[in-house]
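Form 7-S
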Amino acid sequence: MRNLHFRRAARTSVLGTAALIAALSLTACQGGDPAAADSSDGSVSQKPGAGTSAVPASDTDAKPDAKTAGNSGTSGSGSDAAKDSGSAAPKQQGSDADGDNGATRTTCTGENTKLTITDVQRPVNHMLLTVTNTGSKACNAFYYPVLRFGEAQSVPPVVEDSKPQAVVTIAPGESAYAGIMTSSADGSGTGGYSAEDLAVGFLDAESGSAGDMVNVPLSKDVYVDSTLTVTYWQTEMDDALMY
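Output:
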């Protein structure tokens, strides 16, 4: 009787073990890569399989073509860039491209100008010196006229406030002007004398003498004193007589 119970228990144990082995085998057969299928809807997973590889980022970047690189402004010469943009290089000041490089100008002197002097009613004790270009080229009237009334040993000072912003250029046939205050209106000047003649000189770009002094005829004797002054050359008559 005891042996019978032992054999039944052994058979039960063997059957349980076999069932466990079968269950494990079935589980192994149904198992697989969880990435292959989704248990809920069977859709393919986004994870790449073992046989795939990621594309390098450098291969997916857009590569500029030759035209784009040429117009970027980061490479190539300035002349190429100017051609691509369709714009010309800026002109240099004083170059031949400006149409006036200074070669068509000369310095105003007594040889290419004519000088005249006239009395004016306003302001009082003032005269107007006019220089007219008689040459074939435009001339530059640098700084101010150098004056010598009579036998004066020194030239009169210039009115610094009258200095123009640029050198006065006189075209052929055109004129420039300078104002002269001959004496003080209130009699405060000293050392006055009457001058019978006037000589005028020109200056060059380096403020040196430009040619010989020119005698300018006076219609009458001119009284001058220590307040005698002259302006810079001006393009307008009114500007010359405002000092």
